[in-house]
Amino acid sequence: MIELGLSRISSLLQQTPLSWKAIHIAGTNGKGSISAYLSHLLNSGGVRCGRFTSPHLIDRWDCITINERVVQESLFRQIEARVKLRDQTLGIGASEFELLTATAFEIFNHEQVEVGVVEVGMGGRLDSTNILNNVLVSVIAKIGLDHQAFLGNTIEQIAREKAGILKPGVSCVVDGTNCAEAIGAIKDRIGELGLSAAIVHPDAPDDQLPSLGKLFQQHDLQTHQKANMSCAAASLKALLPRIRPDLKADTLIPQLTSVEWPGRLQKLALQPLTARKEPVLLDGAHNAQSAEVLGEYVDRKLRSLGKNITWVIAASHGKDIRPLFHSVINPGDVVATTTFGPVDGMPWVKAANPEELSSCVRDIQGIGEVQSFNQDTLGALEWACSRADGEPLVIAGSLYLASDVLRLLREAKKS
Predict the structure, then answer these.
(1) Residue 374 has what pLDDT?
(2) Which helix (H) or strand (E) holds 371?
(3) Which residue from 73, 30, 75 is spatially nearest to 53, judged by alpha carbons?
(4) Can you tell me the distance from the alpha carbon of 233 to that of 37, in angstroms, rounded to the nearest whole number?
C-alpha cells in the first residue's frame, strides 16, 4: 500500500541522526540514470558514496549500493530487522517503502559514507526520502504524467510535487528539456525559496565543463542520455567545492562513458536461458515518456535495415497501456504478452492481464502475430526467440518484467 507523508519516517529516524550529506533526485524519468552517473563520478573521485534507488532490480537489497557495490545481504537484513523492530515497538505502522528508506539511510550511517545519492520514490514533497536535511544539491529530472492518482492530473501539479524536494539554501539543478509547464512550476518554487538554480540543456553544454561537450561529440547518444549526463555534471560541479575543493568536475566527467545501468536500453545475451545467440534489448520503459525514448532508440538502431521487431511485453496493472505500446510497436511486428511475478517488498504491485495487452496490441493496424503467455515468462521468451529467428527482439513495458528476465537468466547460469 502506498501512503505518502513524512510523519512515520520522522518517527522511525528520530533517534538516528544522519551522518552523511545527500544529493536528492526527483523526476518521472531519468532520475535512476542521474543517480548512477553521480554515484559513479563520486566514486571515481575517491568520495565514499552510497546510492539508494527504487525499485530494486533483482534482489530487494540491490537498490542500495556502497561505492558502486550492492550492499551485503547480511548487513541489509540485520539493519532492516532493527528498523522493523523499532517500527513495531513504537507502533508507527510504517509502509514498506518507509521501512526500506530508513534501512538504506541507516546502512549509509553504518558504512560511513560521505555522500548519499538518494532517488525519490514517488513525487517529492511527501515522499519519505524528503526527510533529508543535509542536502548538497537537489536535482529535478524529466517530468511526465505518472502516478496521477497521488500526484495530480496535470504536468504543473506533478511538477509542483516534484519541486517539493527543493529546500532553502540548497542549490538545484533542473533538466531543461522539460516542457514549459513543468519548467514554469519549478521556477515558481525556485523563486519562492530564492534558490541558486542551474537549468541545463544538452544542446548547450556548460563552457566550464568542456569535457562534457567533447564527450557528446565523440559518442552517439540520445537526447535523454545527454540531458541526464548534463544534470549529473552540473550537480557534480555544484557540490564538489563543498566536499572536495581539490577535485574538478571536468576531470571526472569522462568517466560517464563507463557507467552501466541494467534494465535501461541494456543489450543482453539470453543464453543459457534460451538457445538464441544474438543479443536482445531489455528496457524497463513503463510510461509514455520513457516509451517514446525506447521507440526512438529502436527506430534508429534496430529498424534501420527495414526489419520488423519481435516484442515480449508486460505492464503494471492500472497503467495506460495504449500510449505505452502503440508508440513503439509497428505494423508487422510480432508480440508475446506476459506477466511478471510478485514484487518482493511491494505487494501492491500487480501485473496487467496479458489478454488485455494482446487485445490492445491487436488494435494496431497490420500487426503481426500476437500470443499471450499468462505467467509463463520463459515460454514467452522461447516463443519470441523462435519467431524472431535471429532478428531484433525487444523486452519492454515494465521494470518488473526486466527484473524477472534477469532473475531467470541468473538461475539458468547457476544450473
Answers:
(1) 86
(2) strand 370-372
(3) 30
(4) 9
What are the cell numbers at 86? 523499532
Question: Is the pLDDT at 150 greater than 70, yes or no?
Answer: no
Measured between alpha carbons, how far is 265 from 29 in angstroms, rounded to an integer?
13
Would you place residue 2 in the very low, low, confident or very high pLDDT band (cuts 50, 70, 90)? low
Q: How far apart are CA 111 and CA 272, in angstroms?
A: 37
**Strand arrangement, sheet containing 69-70:** 69-70, 64-66, 49-52, 115-119, 21-26, 135-140, 172-175, 197-200
Q: What cell numbers appear for 192 in the block?
A: 519562492
Query: Is 363 within 8 Å of 321 (Cβ atoms)?
Result: no
Per-residue pLDDT, averaged over 44-72, amounts to: 95
Q: All domains of the chain, ordered by start, with CATH?
A: 6-258 (3.40.1190.10), 266-414 (3.90.190.20)
The residue type found at 2 is: I
pTM, 2 dp: 0.91
Secondary structure string (H, E, C) spanning 54-119:
CCCCCCHHHHEEECCEECCHHHHHHHHHHHHHHHHHHCCCCCHHHHHHHHHHHHHHHCCCCEEEEE
Supply the pLDDT for residue 4: 67
* Residue 116 confidence (pLDDT): 98
Q: How confident is the model at residue 104 (pLDDT cuts 50, 70, 90)?
A: very high
